[in-house]
Design goal:
Shape: globular
Structural class: alpha+beta
Largest sheet: 5 strands, mixed
Helix content: over 70%
Radius of gyration: 30 Å
Strand order of the largest sheet: 2-4-5-7-6
Oligomer: single chain
């Protein structure tokens, strides 16, 4: 995603560059700037930096604002950004912007706000990045300049994508595409479809988006962007298990990018191909291509890509029996990962800061609206008649007031619950329906190009999406019953070992497809008193989550224990786990929240929340113990003595 943003913003550099070339044909520094751009393309960044620093040293501190100095600072920022030096790039861009603000050219000012916003995205400072992009929109609208407005909307969409607010990201991507469509900008349309494909939750639906992006990239003969799209399509085919087609797309991407022409993309695409070779157990090919990718990453240099190359090479060397090399690469990967941790923490903190700010702003808006409504009600009552108010005040007693107040509170709570339910239903039904639409569109549009086994594969996925929709409807019905207070609790004696066996039978096909073993460790002689339907529903949700977040070859254990006066039913997996923030988001349920499984399975995010609320409503409790990459243990505590709720 960062690469798409870089492509977008680098395309903006052609705007002032073209203006400079046309307005100043005799410019003595034009050759210098052209040389800098050539060196950037050839990755000779040290030479470009040295030349620009030397040229800028000719301007003393008291130099009046001038366009030449701004242009050189702009180019220096480009060099630093290409070299991965975010803070020096930010400093150069901000100095260039300060000069542009004094010169007063709206186009230059709008462009510099965008460049600064792009660097801030890279630094994880999303609040400041949004401010820069919105400033760019305001300045571009004053000209007006539709190109700059479109690119600014794209930048805003990318910030929201990083914040995992996909609805807002899609909104701004669509606004950008509407502008690009109106002015016939094929490049902008290609970027728009690429971005929407990236945020589409179901992989099958993202393929049509990528194909449209590819058609626009071909129409403008942009080989680099074509390569980007082929690489994205390859990743989709790899997730589907269509490895031959994935390899074909990866190789197309590498052929289009050309050896040595774009080292950043060439490194990324090569590493993706290495990952495919490891997945398909072609470890010798993975080793050869992995060493090549490592050499590319070191030449840029690109620390994050170097870390990934070390990890992939460690796996391939281990499977080839070259233990010493595998351990060496693993140590290097750990060293590189430690050096990148601080950057990741900065991104998490700034993202949380912006999310908190957004929630605070929403609370303030709601408070202002409520204050206005209260004022309107007061004015309405005052307008009817002072006499009526006095008469009503003498008649209404304190008891009647309390009764009316209680009824209003109950009505408001009912309305809030219903609104929450409608919001969740609308969001959670969207993903499986989107999958069905996307899969069916692929079969409709590409059935002539697909092999029979591929048609069968997509048909199977279509059936699976329909089954997921059916399961989601069951969960939503259960949720609605809970929200509306429908009491269906029917306690009776049940044997948890047999109930768990029934659940395992229902989920066995899904578990086998991921090579996950379901192990029932509950003794056969244990009996508890609780509602069998609710017990099966909760255990089925927990085991299904365990399968979803387990890696191939692992097991999900269902066990039993005693503690104080409670039966403990445990569902344990050793999969990807969750952090505390994810668990809190699930249980707060302020908005739909679902984390993809280990093989990109999508769900509704309702299962764990529904299970806990069902348990607590009927005297039990649900505890989640989990850590990232260490697995999850969910404990269902059921009391010995169970009474039906009043």
């Amino acid at each position: 995603m960062q690469r798409v943003l870089l492509l977008l913003l680098l395309s903006c550099t052609a705007l002032p560059g073209a203006v400079w070339a046309q307005s100043e044909p005799a410019d003595p520094d034009a050759a210098l700037r052209r040389q800098v751009e050539i060196w950037i393309g050839e990755r000779k960044l040290a030479q470009a930096e040295s030349l620009l620093v030397e040229r800028l040293s000719r301007y003393p501190a008291d130099t009046p604002p001038n366009r030449e100095q701004s242009l050189f600072l702009f180019e220096l920022g480009n060099v630093y950004e290409e070299a991965g030096k975010a803070f020096p790039a930010l400093e150069a861009y901000e100095k260039s912007l300060a000069i542009d603000l004094q010169l007063g050219d709206p186009a230059d000012i709008a462009l510099m706000h965008q460049r600064i916003g792009g660097v801030l995205v890279d630094l994880g400072q999303y609040r400041r990045a949004l401010d820069q992009f919105f400033r760019s929109v305001a300045m571009a609208e004053s000209i007006p300049d539709s190109t700059l407005i479109s690119y600014a909307f794209n930048g805003i969409g990318i910030v929201h994508e990083y914040l995992n607010d996909m609805d807002r990201a899609r909104f701004y991507y669509s606004r950008s595409m509407a502008i690009d469509s109106a002015r016939g900008d094929a490049y902008g349309m290609a970027i728009g479809y690429m971005n929407i494909g990236n945020i589409t939750p179901d992989s099958s639906t993202s393929l049509p988006m990528y194909r449209r992006a590819l058609s626009y990239a071909v129409s403008i003969d942009d080989r680099t962007f074509q390569a980007e799209v082929h690489n994205s399509m390859a990743s989709v085919y790899q997730r589907y298990g269509l490895f031959n087609r994935a390899q074909t797309e990866y190789r197309r991407a590498l052929d289009l990018i050309g050896e040595g022409r774009d080292l950043v993309n060439e490194t990324q695409f090569t590493l993706d191909l290495v990952d495919l070779y490891n997945t398909t157990r072609r470890f010798e090919d993975a080793s050869i291509w992995g060493r090549y990718a490592l050499g590319l990453a070191e030449s840029i240099p690109a620390p994050d890509q170097m870390r990934r190359a070390y990890e992939l090479l460690s796996l391939s060397e281990e499977r080839l029996g070259r233990t010493a090399d595998a351990l060496r690469y693993l140590r290097l990967a750990n060293i590189m990962r430690d050096s990148l941790i601080s950057d990741g923490r900065i991104r998490e903190v700034t993202a949380l800061e912006l999310q908190t700010l957004h929630e605070r702003e929403q609370d303030e808006v709601r408070a202002r609206i409520e204050q206005q409504r209260k004022a309107d009600r007061i004015l309405l009552v005052a307008g009817t008649s002072l006499l009526v108010i006095l008469l009503m005040a003498t008649i209404i007693t304190y008891r009647q007031y309390r009764k009316t107040r209680n009824l209003l509170d109950a009505l408001n709570q009912s309305e809030r619950s219903r609104a929450s339910l409608f919001s969740i239903v609308a969001h959670d039904l969207k993903n499986p329906l989107t999958g069905i639409i996307g899969l069916s569109s692929i079969l409709a549009e590409d059935h002539k190009e697909l092999a029979p086994e591929e048609v069968g594969f997509f048909a199977e996925r279509l059936n699976q999406s329909a089954q997921n929709l059916h399961k989601l409807m069951d969960s939503l019905l259960e949720w609605s019953s809970l929200e509306l207070g429908v009491d269906r609790f029917r306690p009776e004696v049940l044997t948890p070992h047999q109930s768990v066996n029934n659940v395992i039978g229902l989920l066995s096909d899904i578990a086998k497809s991921k090579d996950v073993e379901l192990v029932n460790k509950i003794p056969t002689n244990i009996q508890i008193v609780w509602d069998p339907f609710l017990f099966d529903s909760i255990v089925r949700n927990l085991v299904s989550n365990g399968i979803k977040y387990s890696y191939r070859g692992q097991a999900v254990d269902i066990g039993y224990d005693l503690e104080d006066e409670h039966h403990l039913i445990t569902v344990e997996d050793r999969g990807k786990g969750m952090d505390a923030g994810t668990v809190e988001a699930i249980f707060q349920r302020k908005r739909a929240h679902s984390t993809p499984g280990t093989e990109h399975e999508m769900g509704s995010g309702l299962g764990l929340l529904l299970s806990r609320q069902l348990a607590e409503r009927y005297g039990a409790s649900l505890e989640v113990n989990t850590r990232p990459d260490e697995g999850t243990t969910v404990i269902l505590r059921i009391p010995y003595e169970v009474e039906k709720p009043a």
